[in-house]
Amino acid sequence: MTTALPSSKKSSRRVIPGFHFTLYFTLIYLLLIVLVPLGGLFVKTASLSWSQFWEVVLSARVLASFRVTFGSALVASLINIVFGLITAWVLVRYHFWGKRIVDAFIDLPFALPTAVAGITLTSLLAPNGWVGQYLAPLGIKAAYSQLGIVLALTFIGLPFVVRSVQPVLEALSKDTEEAAESLGASRGQVFFRVILPEILPAVLTGFTLAFARTVGEYGSVIFISGNMPMQTEIIPLLIVSKLEQYDYSGATAIASVMLVVSFVLLLLSNFLQARAARKLGAA
Amino acid sequence: MPKKTALLTVFLASSALAAGTTLLNVSYDPTRELYQDINAAFAKKWKAQTGQDLTLNQSHGGSGAQARSVIDGLEADVVTLALSYDIDSIADKAKLLPENWQSRLAYNSSPYTSTIVFLVRKGNPKNIKDWDDLTKNGVQVITPNPKTSGGARWNFLGAWGYALKKYKTEAKAKDFVQKIYKNVPVLDSGARGSTTTFVERGIGDVLIAWENEALLATKQLGEGKFEIVAPSLSILAEPPVTWVDKNVEKHGTQKLAKAYLEFLYSAEGQEIAAKNYYRPRSKTVAAKYDAQFPRVKLFTLQSVFGNWRDTQKKYFNDGGVFDQIYQK
Predict the structure, then answer these.
(1) What is known about what this protein does (chain B) (predicted)?
(2) Are A245 and B147 in contact (CB < 8 Å)?
């Protein structure tokens, strides 16, 4: 019994000192970096009574902007599922000149300050911009509308889907596809019944990460949205405008709703992934 | 214990001496160019008087955000913000300066003023002359969001004050201002953002702007592409300045901070303000630059609205008049 599986023997040498040390380190690190700051948010919110809290969170303007924010983030993340998947597919399955450069481009939305992205997109899509000037005569209002928000969020969310799906596609062996084809499966069947189930957990991860990230996006959206109350105001803007009147607890009330939603989403994603993985294992 | 205290005193005194020649001016967005000029001139003057070299640092951002930074611990020696409400908040929330700070320097602690005017495209195609024209159908108005921009609050109050004077009742003034905001397609979060939307993106027929921003836009951004239209009546915008008592005590910069702010009132300081398109308080300097500023009848915030604390609460806080305009 000399298998080198890491979980098999206690005696196997560990690179980093012991389980207890690393676990405590992880917990303390999480506590300091994540939980304490976020806990502060809830403590600040707690200075409101429940009725005050609901009054802030359920006011017409806040509800309208929840709709705008979550709606736009949802649409943008769905767009990214489709096009992120295609992008990842191309990068994994084909070889072409300049592939490394294209691959590097994917991460640009990660690296670029989001305000720069917002200003650039706005100047492109404004009625006098390169793209906007052709859209305006068609009656399409790209900048300063919800469409603009969706476009900005699509830009911001793209790398999440591509980078989640890419490694799974790479690991996927071609054998099963070829087997399916030799058994007479159509291309559609191969995709939906062979490939998709394999990459579905990764797609879900990408989707959730993109969604959670874009819900809180401020920099890129603020320039392109037009910020019209009840129409194109995003939640982070309302938080800023609460702060502007020194209403810290009101701002944290809205922020804590965002936090809870994001956390629930991430939990849900983990759950779906686990389930999808189990199904695959069973099959 | 006495030894410790003595050591501490020496340490504090030496650090005060070392820091005594450094000043941090926390200001708002459009004053960047103004304070670059002021700092250069003041450092030169101070050097001539005392032989000391000064380090003058400036920080810019949205007025409210800057005030929050100071409240949260940014050690500003002097603050030069867009609204006295923001400095009031520093006094109220962080107790860094006395509540009556505004009476410490001349003219309500506002060494220079500005007002709200209109910027239109060349030739004034929509023939905009006064506030009434902003309520017309088919006129697109660009102004930032009063919830996030100090400058935008002056815009709002300028329109309100005009309407109140002309139509007498508050209800009619509200109606009037509501009509203007119906014509607003984009509410940027700050004054510079609105200028960009109007000038660079080509959106809107008229920009409601600080006079100094409008002059800057006509002189520097697009010579000959824009025109300034002065309304018949507008608000006197008084951006206030003061030193932050707790911080200057800590830094040993009381004298320096005071001298710096008083320099703003001197003939030289007033001249620099005028060159940066701010209206000087000094009558002689004002006379010299008279041709530069459009003629507008002005009313003060005090005369129509009272103080900033009440104005902020009534008009711009959540559920206030501005929210009602958008929520009916």
Answers:
(1) This protein specifically binds sulfate and is involved in its transmembrane transport.
(2) yes
* A250:B323 CB<8 A: no
Of B89, B186, B327, the CB nearest to A226: B186
pLDDT band at A103 (very low <50, low <70, confident <90, very high): very high
Which of A128, A227, A242 has its CB closest to that of B201? A128
Position B210, amino acid: W
Nearest in space to A211 (alpha carbons), one of A135, A266, A282: A266
Single-letter amino acid code for the residue at B225? K
Chain A partners of B145 at a C-beta cutoff of 8 Å? 227, 241
| CB contact at 8 A, A214 and A77 | yes
- Cβ-nearest to A244 among B64, B193, B327: B64
Report the alpha-carbon distance of residue B300 to residue B277 in Å, rounded.
19
Measured between beta carbons, the chain A residues lying within 8 angstroms of B156 are: none
C-alpha distances out from residue B159 to A219, B150, B189, B227, B306, Å: 30, 15, 19, 20, 16
- pLDDT, tens digit (0-9, with 9 covering 90-100), for A189-227: 888 888 888 888 889 889 999 998 999 899 889 989 888
Q: Looking at beta carbons, which residues of chain A come within 8 Å of B202?
A: 126-128
- What is the ipTM for the molecules in this complex? 0.76
Per-residue burial over B4-19, b if 16 or more Cβ lie within 10 Å, else e, is eeeeeeeeeeeeeeeb
> Which residues of chain B does A240 touch, with a Cβ-Cβ cutoff of 8 Å?
148, 189
Q: Check CB contact of B193 with chain A, cutoff 8 Å.
A: yes
What are the residue ranges of helices labelled H in A36-140? 36-45, 50-57, 60-93, 99-106, 108-111, 114-125, 132-135
The CA distance from B10 to the nearest CA of chain A, in Å, is 36
- Number of residues written out for chain B: 328
Express each pLDDT in A40-70 by its tens digit. Answer: 888 888 888 999 999 989 988 899 999 999 9
Partners of A243 on chain B (C-beta within 8 Å) are 64-65, 68
CB-based contact, B200 to chain A, within 8 Å: yes
Split at pLDDT 50, 70, 90, the class of A11 is: low
∠ CA A185-A178-A162, nearest 5°, is: 95
**Mean pLDDT over residues A90-94, rounded?**
92
